[in-house]
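S1.2 Input.
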Amino acid sequence: MKMVIVHIYTLVLFLLTLLPSTATAQHLSQQEYSILHKVYTCIEQGEFEAGLAQLHVLLKRKRPSSYTFSYAALCYSNMGEEAKAIDVLKRAVTIFPQQTGLWQNLGILQMQIGDYDRAIDSFTTLLSLQDKEDPSIRYNLAFAFYRQENFHQALSTVQPLTKNNLCKRHWLLLQIYCEMGLKNWATAETDGLRLLALSPNSSSVWSLLGNIALNRENHSGATAYLEIANILTQENTASNTIANLYGAQSAWNELIRYQHIINKPTIDIVENMLRSCQYKRALTEVETIPETAESMTEAFLKGQILFSLGKNKAAVQELLRVEKLPFTLGMGNDTSKKKNKTIRRKRNRLIARTLLLAGQILWLDHRWLEARDVFKRLELQSGHETLGKNLARCMQSLLLEKKTPIKQPGLYSPPLT
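S1.3 Output.
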C-alpha cells in the first residue's frame, strides 16, 4: 500500500532559551556571559544568523556551556539546518550526559528529519534520566516507533498513557492507529469510542470509526458513523462514501447472488467477495472448494483473505502451499506451444506474487530468517532475480542487527489526522 506521510504536528521544539541568571552559572566567564546575553537578544528578535556568528567563538572551546549548545542548536534549526543543530547537540550530550533538556532537543530534531532509530535512542535515554516521567517524552517515543511501523512496540509504549482518566486525545489517537496497523479492528473501535467521548463533535473521529467499521465488515455501522460525520461537516467526500456504501454493497451482493444462480466458478465469486472487502464470506466460500479441485489460484486467494483478516501465520502457511499445487488456465482445447508458454508465464508470475507477499508478511512479523529464505526462493524466479536478491540481503542485514530498532515494510501506514 502507499505510504502516508505523517507530519509531526504534535512536537514542539523545547530548546532552552533561558538566559543564565548570573555570570557564575555553570562557571561562566564574564566574557561568555556577555556573549550569551547578546545571543539571547538576537534570538528574541529572530536574528538567528547574527546570534550564531556570536556563538562561534564559544563553540570553538573544548567545553562550552550547555547554554551555548542550546542557543546554537536553536539558531541552526530556525535557519533550516537541522543536521548542524543535531551535530551540536550530539556534542552537547557527550559533555552534559545528565542534561535532560539537551536529550529532548536532540530527540525532537531527529524526529523532524525522520531519523527515528536515533530519536528512539535519545528518548529512551531521556526517560531513564527522569525521576518523574514526562508523558510527552513517552508519547514522542511511541510516535517514533509508530513511524517505523513497529506497531507492537509503539502500542506497548503508549498504553501506559491511555489507561488513566486524564488521557489526552492525541495519546489515544496514536494508540488507535497502532491497533489499526496491527489490524486489531475490534480494539481499535473500542478505543475509537473512548476517543469519541473526548471529542463528541469531531467529524474526523466519526469518520475514523466509519473506516474501522468498514474493515470489520460492519457496513451498517460504518454507514451510521459516516452519516453523523456528514452531518457535522457536510463534505461531499463523506456524502459520496455513504452513497457508495449503500449502492456499491448492494450491487456486489446482487452480483454474487446472480453468480451463485448461474453456477459461476467458486473462484470468481470469491474474487468478487475479496474486492468488496467481505473477507469472512470469502473465506467461507473458498473453503467449500474440495482439496482435490484446489489449484494455485485458490490457495493464493485464501492467503490474501487470511492476511486481510489479520491471520498472518495461517496466511503464510497457505501462500507457501501455492507452488506445490497445480496451475489451471482455461484456454479451451488449445494445445499449442503458445498455450504452454502462456501457462508457464502466468504460473511463474503467480509464484512470484505469492513469494513476495509471504516474505512481506514474515518481514512485518519480524520473522527475518524465514523472510530471507522466502526471498531467496523469489530470486530463483525469472525476471525477479534482482528483487529477490536485494530483499534477501536486506533480511540478512536485519538478522545481523542485535539491538538496533528495525524498520518494517510499508504494507500499511494509517494517517494521523
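S1.4 Remarks. Confidence is low (pLDDT under 50) at residues 1-19, 21-25, 330-335, 402-417.
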